[in-house]
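Write out structure tokens for Iron-only hydrogenase system regulator.
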Amino acid sequence: MKKIAVISAILEEPEKSQHKFNETISSFKGIIKGRMGIPCETEGVSVICIVVVGNLDDINNLTGKLGNIPNVLVKTSISKKEL
């Protein structure tokens, strides 16, 4: 069963974590429907929102991998509705 989710991430030191973050996202391109990134240069952070559609294991796997990257904070909202 598939669900839709939004993964929100804050990269606190984008210059150090952006490459690994993008590499990880690329490895899950099959479940990613859209991505919006906002560089907040004055604040020294980047804010990224990713919309995914997939099974819970894939969504949680992606969230976990992103959350394990140093200086990256991640939260995920998962729809209760099954697709």
